Backbone:
């Protein structure tokens, strides 16, 4: 008798899926404990650190790395740079998933997640957080609309896809306005911490700084994610397009650098660059990685035209600018009596789980939805008249 | 005009007995470790026989321009006309932005309560329930040395300056809270630098000014930005249409040139 083993189809999923699912399960369990017993038992947050890893990573980093969506929508729809179109769908999807991740993370972080909709009925018009809340909720809706045609196409519903496409412009413009607002408002969120946030970072132009750095982050994120997905899904890399985006990064990073130094000089605080110990170090790390390195790297054609160069440059920029988000929302804030705070592994497992869910969602969408074949369409469109001749 | 109440705390009179904390925890029915005030300050300083004591029950400052109230997205904080900054638990979503916004690091959070019990912000209330029946806050009532006193803010400021003038060698010549953060309803007299009592150095302009000014500009900015983008979108569209109209001619020329 022959032994026949039939693997259940689920067991044939690639191992990465199993890893992601495991991480999600761990985070889910921790979240349940958190809802039952409170935030204290699963995290190291305390009264001096009401906001910690979750806010710096899930909110500040999460929103920043989702900025590619509005940048691409602006470039393709408003400025009508049609050749960039192949990058549009993946960026909009990244943004949509990114914002969903932010929303889910906030539900874990809020003391009263069941009351999140109170933001819609009780308006305190002086609150920056209210503005961010409203913008993020509205922008999630806009992203859903922007992404809907892809889903409809995937389901072969040509008519609704066409319908949404026809009326997309007002939503795109609304989306860009909303993004400009909340990307910069994340910086405004810290304006009220004037006496606590280190003067290397606190400036009345925090919103401008945040918007400028969001541009660098968004562009790098598109490069990063296209590079990775082309590697994983073994499809062609749109180097000629990414090269164009990379060319813009020295300008956004340069603007940030000039604004930052001018602002410090104007406030007469340039000395802080060298006299603030750890803070100076953190600041320099952020500026070197997030501004100076990309200006140097992406000014070189050789870097911009090599897949590895693009990916490395994008990762360095992201590291630097994400460090900036951690600096302003956590490391750079002075506490009155400081009991200290380091996030616990259990606390971070929730962010890891949400991130894993995001990666899985992107992977599934890439597999089952027409996410990447827009380029073939345009190629066909370009080559069609030629064959017609 | 209604009276605006305030406290005055005189650090030279505080003997670190912590009766105020016990009174607070009893009055507000919270555990001792979770009373709305805590002891701040450097404790006993100096070398024998020149010892100094620096301690203070750290209260909410009941700011005249409260940053917590400016920051809260759902408006759960309210500065009452008669002085106290009060918190409406029924509105609170638990975002903890008030904790971050408060420059005095006053609001505390129920870290060990889940969603069923309900996790809220805890902070000194100025014992509004006692004010209503004409009593002074429990901590003030209990203080055995009159280090804590309660009354109308203007009167207390006058009294503070009178105390300094009567004993200039005993006090630092400054009433903390008269102007800090735009003025607070918890005033402090001290014989040691205020930082020894755990108090931050504060500007006289309220901290919330910059952020509220930016918020006021938000809607006009959004409208202007939306208009600009719409203009750009229409302009680019027109330009491309013109180009497309001209394109076939160019293409023809090209083919002509090729042939
Ligand atoms: S005024 Fe009342 S609530 Fe505030 S510290 Fe004193 S006893 Fe506690
Ligand atoms: S001290 Fe803090 S909590 Fe109290 S009123 Fe001022 S800002 Fe609000
Ligand atoms: S935790 Fe509650 S009171 Fe504090 S800012 Fe958030 S909603 Fe307002």
Residues:
């Amino acid at each position: 008798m022959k032994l026949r083993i039939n693997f259940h189809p689920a067991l044939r999923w690639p191992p990465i899926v199993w890893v992601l699912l495991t991480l999600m399960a761990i985070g889910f369990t921790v979240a349940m404990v958190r809802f039952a017993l409170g935030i204290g038992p699963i995290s190291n947050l305390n009264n001096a650190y009401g906001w910690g890893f979750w806010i710096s990573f899930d909110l500040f980093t999460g929103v920043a790395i989702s900025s590619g969506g509005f940048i691409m929508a602006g470039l393709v729809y408003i400025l009508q740079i049609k050749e960039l179109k192949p990058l549009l769908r993946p960026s909009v999807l990244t943004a949509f998933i990114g914002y969903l991740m932010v929303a889910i993370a906030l539900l874990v972080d809020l003391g009263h997640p069941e009351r999140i909709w109170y933001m819609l009925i009780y308006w305190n018009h002086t609150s920056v957080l209210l503005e961010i809340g409203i913008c993020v909720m509205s922008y999630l809706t806009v992203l859903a609309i922007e992404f809907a045609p892809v889903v409809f196409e995937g389901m072969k519903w040509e008519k609704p896809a066409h319908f949404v496409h026809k009326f997309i412009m007002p939503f795109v413009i609304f989306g860009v306005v909303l993004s400009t607002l909340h990307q910069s408002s994340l910086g405004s969120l810290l304006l009220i911490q004037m006496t606590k946030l280190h003067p290397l970072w606190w400036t009345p132009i925090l919103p401008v700084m945040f918007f400028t750095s969001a541009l660098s982050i968004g562009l790098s994120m598109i490069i990063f994610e296209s590079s990775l997905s082309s590697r994983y899904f073994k499809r062609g890399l749109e180097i000629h397009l990414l090269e164009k985006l990379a060319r813009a990064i020295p300008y956004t990073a340069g603007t940030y650098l000039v604004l930052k130094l001018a602002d410090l000089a104007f406030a007469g605080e340039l000395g802080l660059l060298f006299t603030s110990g750890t803070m100076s170090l953190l600041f320099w790390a952020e500026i070197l990685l997030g501004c100076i390195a990309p200006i140097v790297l992406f000014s070189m054609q050789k870097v911009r035209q090599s897949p590895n160069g693009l990916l490395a440059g994008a990762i360095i920029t992201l590291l630097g600018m994400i460090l900036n988000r951690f600096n302003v929302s956590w490391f750079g804030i002075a506490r009155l009596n400081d009991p200290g705070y380091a996030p616990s592994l259990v606390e971070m497992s929730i962010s890891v789980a949400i991130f894993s869910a995001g990666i899985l969602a992107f992977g599934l969408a890439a597999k089952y939805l027409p996410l990447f074949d827009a380029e073939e369409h345009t190629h066909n469109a370009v080559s069609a008249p030629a064959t017609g001749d | 005009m209604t009276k605006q109440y305030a406290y005055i705390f005189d650090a030279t009179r505080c003997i670190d007995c912590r009766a105020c904390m016990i009174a607070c925890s009893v009055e507000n029915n919270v555990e001792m470790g979770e009373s709305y005030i805590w002891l701040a300050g450097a404790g006993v300083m100096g070398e024998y026989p020149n010892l100094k004591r620096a301690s203070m029950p750290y209260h909410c400052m009941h700011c005249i321009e409260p940053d917590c109230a400016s920051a809260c997205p759902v408006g759960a904080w309210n500065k009452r006309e008669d002085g106290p900054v009060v918190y409406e638990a029924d509105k609170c979503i638990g975002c903890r932005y008030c904790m971050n916004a408060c420059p005095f690091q006053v609001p505390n959070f129920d870290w060990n309560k889940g969603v069923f019990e309900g996790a809220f912000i805890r902070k000194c209330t100025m014992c509004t329930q006692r004010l209503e029946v004409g009593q002074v806050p429990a901590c003030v009532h209990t203080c055995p040395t009159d280090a804590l006193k309660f009354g109308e803010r203007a009167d207390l400021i006058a009294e503070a300056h009178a105390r300094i003038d009567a004993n200039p060698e005993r006090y630092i010549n400054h009433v903390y809270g008269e102007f800090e953060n735009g003025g607070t309803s918890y005033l402090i007299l001290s014989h040691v630098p205020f930082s020894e009592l755990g108090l931050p150095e504060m500007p006289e302009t309220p901290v919330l000014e910059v952020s509220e000014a930016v918020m006021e500009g938000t809607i006009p900015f959004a409208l202007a930005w939306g208009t600009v983008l719409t203009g750009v979108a229409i302009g680019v569209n027109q330009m491309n249409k013109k180009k497309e109209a001209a394109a076939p001619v160019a293409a023809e020329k090209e083919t002509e040139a090729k042939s």
In short: The pocket of iron/sulfur cluster (ligand 2) is lined by residues B 60-63, 66-68, 85, 102, 104, 106-107, 123 (CB under 6 Å). Chain A is about 70% helix and 0% strand. The radius of gyration of chain A is 22 Å.
